Task: structure prediction
Amino acid sequence: MQRDLSAKYDLRVPRYTSYPTAPHFHPGIGPDQYGKWLGQLDPATELSLYLHIAYCAEMCWFCGCHTKITRKYAPVATYLEALLAEVKLVADHLPTKMAARHVHFGGGSPTILSPEDFVRTIETLRQHFIIKPDAEIAVELDPRTADETYVKAMASVGVTRASIGVQDFDPKVQEAINRIQPYDVTANVIDWLRKHGVPEINMDLVYGLPFQTVDGLLDTIDKAHGFKPRRIALFGYAHVPWMKKHQRLIPEEALPDTDTRWAQYELGTKRLEDLGYVKIGLDHFAAPDDPLAIALQEKRLHRNFQGYTTDSADVLVGLGASGIGSLPQGYVANVGETHHYLDAIRAGRLATSRGVAMDADDHLRRDLIMTLMCDLELDIDAVCARHGADASQFDADLAKLEPMIEDGLARIQGRRITMTDEGRTLVRAAAAIFDKYLKKGEQRHSKAV
Result:
């Protein structure tokens, strides 16, 4: 992308994994409201379950997750007991024992759990929910804390997907982000996954890291491709030291400048496409016959807090400290501080600390934003028709895209928006025109690229 355009549009806008976005959640939505919403669900609704394991063995300085650092297992064991109690507590608020088609373990580091406790967690989920026979059970895996025993335990209880955090294979970059992970460590974990029958492997890479060069990133992509993962995510590092104080340990002078960051994104994307991957939205890549690529082709792609997904569940149940859930009535978020989370669950109450109720306009705007984010095109008339809304109300918003149209980043025909190949990088900036909560110049979000 031309330098002037990258400077013009590299704005701080939400990633739109939800709408309204998390900064607009408020404490007016608490445990009682969440419990009421759970009880109002249609018993036939399928769920998606997200379990947040809020501990790591050490802090990666680039990390934007909610996590605590411990070298001892006792705090992890204590936390897990609360998490399993929350599973029962949430299930007790539901109208019946409900079915789940997706289960996702995130963190923190799910692999900080002992193999026995991981198995016990899956068994507890099966006691309180109907885990469908074809359910996807996915685990975010840190190769530094996963041994073969753990991988074997994952496979024994039906884990179908492992998402492996790599970031970058360059030792200098790893040292700068405090994540020392030799190539052989990653290779061993992948060998174990395939040996014990975990069928699907994702790999997570990051651009925009300190001391990272374009050539170094391309080398990392080539090494990752050598493992033949079905999906690769290429995320942009979100440098938000005002929110994540440990990011202040990263030398800002070592971060790539805007031009280099754009080059990393664009050339990294091209390399992945040349290697045969289909680009999914902003930052995901999948083999052509992968369900994610097929969903893109058939316009069935979805987006949630884990990024682009085939998960079409209307309800996401977030479990654990800082866990976020999505229901037809709105969003809920658990308290992030682990000790407050433990106090709530021990007291027998849901740990909800904030959220937001959605009205008809929120649902409409979310549909507009997510359609554009997933399909890179948007028929406003069609989306409004689904919601029984007047599409002309967005004509003034469409006018805000004129600069992007003039720069060849988007096209508009009637009320249909199409991002061009060059403009797809900035789809977040285009989607933001429908965000009635976003204030110009806010610094709470990461850069668009």
Summary: The radius of gyration is 21 Å.
